[in-house]
Amino acid sequence: MRTRDLIRKNLFLLLVLLAYAVLFFVRRDLVNESVRNSTYYIREMVLVMPAVFVLTALLDLWIPKDRILQFLGKDAGVRGILLSFLIGSLSAGPIYAAFPLCVMLHKKGASIRNIVIILSSWAVIKLPMLLNEAKYLGFKFMGLRWLLTVLAILIFSSITSLVIRNHPLPENGDSNGADGLPD
After folding, report:
1. Could you state, in order of their start, the residue ranges of all structural domains in the chain?
2. With contact defined as beta carbons under 8 Å apart, do 142 and 94 qualify?
3. Distance (Å, whole) CA 136 – CA 68
4. pTM value?
5. Half-sphere exposure of 120 (CA within 13 A, CB side)
6. Distance between CA 104 and CA 59 in Å, rounded?
7. What residue ranges of the chain have pLDDT lower than 70?
8. What's the whole-number average pLDDT of the chain?
9. The pLDDT of residue 91
10. HSE (side-chain half, CA atoms, 13 Å) at 99
11. E strands, the chain, where?
C-alpha cells in the first residue's frame, strides 16, 4: 500500500493523534483525562464486542433472508417501522453493539430506513432509559420528549433512505469510495 493511500485511509486517526500531540503541550490535563476515558471505553468494547459478534453470527444463521425482507425490507411498511422501533427500544448494551447487527440485517435485505430507526431507537428511546427519565424528570417531560424523538427519527430515517438509496454498505469497515452517497 502506498504511503498516500495509507494516510488517506487513516486520516481521522492521524488527526486525532495530532490533536493529542498539540494538547500535550497546551493542556496536558485534557490529554490525561482523554486517555483515561479512551482506555475505559476500549476495555468495555473488548468485553462486549465478542458476545455481540457471536450473537450477530447466530442471528445471521437462524433468521432466513426472506424473513428479514418480509419484516424489515423496503416493502415492510408500517410493520417494519414498528418492528424497528421495538428492536431498538428493547435492546441492551451500548450503541456500538448495534452496528454489527445492523450490518447483518442490511446484508439480508433490511432497508436503510429501518436500519436508521433501529440505531436511533437503540441510542435514544430504550425502555430502561425512558423509565429513569420519567422517574427523574416526570412523565409529561418523558412523554413529550419520546414523541418528538420518534417523530424526528421517522423524518431522519426517511431522509437518510432517500439520500443513501440502499447502496451497499462498506465491507470490513472500509468506507473508502463506498459511502453510499450519490455522486
Report:
1. 13-62, 67-163
2. no
3. 38
4. 0.76
5. 22
6. 9
7. 1, 166-183
8. 87
9. 87
10. 11
11. none
